[in-house]
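User: Can you fold this complex?
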Amino acid sequence: MSTEFQHAIAVNELADPGTMMIEIDERLVVLVHVEGEFFCIDDVCTHDNGPLSEGELQGCQLICPRHGAKFDVRTGQAMTFPAILATTAHEVKVDDGNVYVKINDE
Amino acid sequence: MTDTMTIAEFNDAGFDAFLASRHEPEWMLAERRQAWSQFSDMQWPGRRDEEWMRTDIRLFKLQQYHLVLDPPDAMPSEITPLLDSDITLGGHIHTVDGNCVSSTIADHLTQQGVVFGSLDDLTAEHADRFQTMLLKSAYNSQADRFAALHSSCWSGGQFLFVPRGVHVTEPLHVLSALTDGAADLGHTLVVLEDGASATLLAETASEQEDGGGLHCGGVELVVGDGASLRYVNLQNWGSKVWHFAQQKAVLGRDANLQWTSAAIGSRLAKVNQHVILAGEGANTQVNGVLFTQGSQHLSYHTLQHHQAAHCHSDFLYKSALQDKSHTVWRGMIRVDKGAQRTDGYQRNDNLLLSHHARADSIPGLEILADDVRCTHGSTSGMVDEELIYYAMCRGFTRKEASRLIVTGFFQQIFDRITIDSVRDALALAIARRVRDYE
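Assistant: Here's the predicted assembly.
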């Protein structure tokens, strides 16, 4: 499993605000474009494994479509019940019009 | 795709090549074509299906795997079976990538009418029996896309038939192996006629411990009136194997089934295990042992379906999880209206060996009769740090203490397993995997 930055998408492939599910290192993550910045968290709600990529983005919070748990896309922190544990957040960098993600495999 | 191809991909051309490699009667080929058509029309199960809500297969890509049409001559030397040590077997079947490479049965069993061998090899001889029973006794080919895939492309597999009143005292053993990137769509059909008895030990293994592959299997157990079957199934695939299975047993009047199901391998497993108590007085005991590590995901969905009165079922599943692994156990006791005096029990215990592991436990009851006793229970928790401390005060290392506690956790199930080699093999396999408790 690589822990280096890997190319995800071109900046212009994802609107602001917007979300996109992508696969990196056999892992499904959600790439989020909000207020000019890119963030990346696991596509997993820690409440019951719901797909966050299918949820609604409200500011910097992504809402699980199953039970409404909210996650801060900048840190992965769970902001409301029923989720109490953070989902994994991954490092993102933008370089020369492209978005790169480094998977956090801790 | 040509006749010289030794592998077949999961597409129309590959399926045609697979059929061309088979030497089967027309009715069987027609059933395969029908199932392939259904497979082609179906979608993979989605995350909105209740059974799949907690099991994410979006990373599963069928095109990464292939059917092997030209099997090796023998079992790869890297593979060592766990369940057959120090016991005298009545016969064995070894398969590699869904193709039988070795099969034996003791002469005295053959003389009593017992049949044990590869489904592929026995198709011609037992065509009538297969036409009425295979994939029809206890298998739903339309359950989902995996079931349709299995019904269209099964190969190798095992057939055990024990005639009325015959007792097979020596265990029979099956080892199914998988090489990296290959698919195993083995099917097991066991038929015990009235009053017969047998013990079948089945296990899986991969050529490489971190090997990938696909298992999409099916198990049909038909236990006749007064018959008794002990069935042990150890899933020990490599850590990148996808494992999907539909396993079902149908019990006649006063039949007995002891089913031990252990899972320690695979990347992701989704198993439906059903026991249908169809005859009055039937009795079943199911012992489930799951040990997970890394990012493994094992999902077991059990059903104990009481269709007749005066039946007894007892399901006990125990899971120990370390690292970031995840188990899902969803059990159901279903009691039909006429199944009075049912005695049903189900329990699932989970031992979390890491703060990052997760166990979802969902027991359930659906009872339409009004004179039954059905109970269920579930526990989930972490190791008590005081137990670790207590053991370490007495000279154990932390790792030894963890092993001791995990072994003790499973002891309740090991005590129920009546075959020494199975009990020892499971205990050893689990103890080897336990790391320091985090």
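The interface with chain B takes residues 23, 26, 28, 44, 48-51, 66 of chain A (CB under 8 Å). Residues 61 and 72 of chain A are 5 Å apart (CA to CA).
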